[in-house]
Predict the structure.
Amino acid sequence: MRDPNAIDFWRGFALVTIFINHVPGNTFERYTFSQYGISDAAELFVFLAGWSIGIATRGRDGKPEAAGKSVVRLLARTVEVYRAQLTVMLLALALIAGAALLLDNPLILEWHNAGGFFADPIQSVCGMALMTYQLGFFNILPLYVVLIGIAPIFVLVGRLSLLATLALSGGVYLASLVFEWNVPSWPGEGDWFFDPFCWQVLLVLGFVLQGWSLRSDTLRRWSRRLIPAGFAIVLVGVVLAVTGLRPDPLMVPEPRLLFTFEKTYLTPARLLHFLGVLLAFAPLYAVLAPRIGVVGRYLSQLGRNSLAVFSMGSILSLFGQLVRFQTGGGVLVDMLVAGSGLVGLGFTAWFVEWRTRSKSSRPRP
């Protein structure tokens, strides 16, 4: 297994934050950085996915691997994430149904849009396969499937010019904001919670910046110079989050998505805030790593096994929601939910690596 590094560390940090935030109302939610800014861990997770694509599609010397190999690698990862999404959705629905039976409470069947599945399982199963049917808090993986699935386009364009990749992605992003493009949900009404037309820009940004970071001293120099600007943006985000100041969608000019703070469309304010967070805190890993020992290794291990950990975190957070619903919550319950959840995430990462080591050391017939 690879040694701890900044990418795995921050991805592990994002996974823990997402797990805590996916148990709404719990005591520890107020201490996550998502409560003190416009953007949250979802932006960090997607950006790091793009950065990881840049690493995965280049050799140790930084040179791009064969185009066909990159395409196959990304498509294989798409299938893997899609399989995880179907599995997690099935387990979530089973958990909701089991809780409704155990607690003799049919209202639980309505949990996070699950009611549509139990009322119309035929259409909902088709929607699950198409990913147009999603449960609340289970909508990041469908986004991830689409983003990894279209990543070969950006990777191949990036072989010609990273600037052209960014221009293509930015053009789709701006058009989506202006014309409010999104993928429709089905069965039922509405659109995807995470609009892939808009969120792809963050994945591409991670991919492009990883490429530029390998060969551009100018990028590294300016990232250091802009650290104060990053902290200023973070400070503004804290003020906006604490005071609850938000633009009124009915009062802003058209196209309104250029001015609002909507997570669904990764609006420019959220994107700018995330870039500020990136500038301010990206150098922090080098300072923290030698000082946080087991915590750093724990977060890095989570990050190395992000898909399995995220999938397990989704199920554990749903279980935590149901526990809080039944017990009424409270500090002790929240400590139990958060503590057991973090242990569960750590065990999942350990198990995946243990199984990988066992397979590699097993003699082949």
Q: What stands out?
A: The chain has a mean pLDDT of 94.
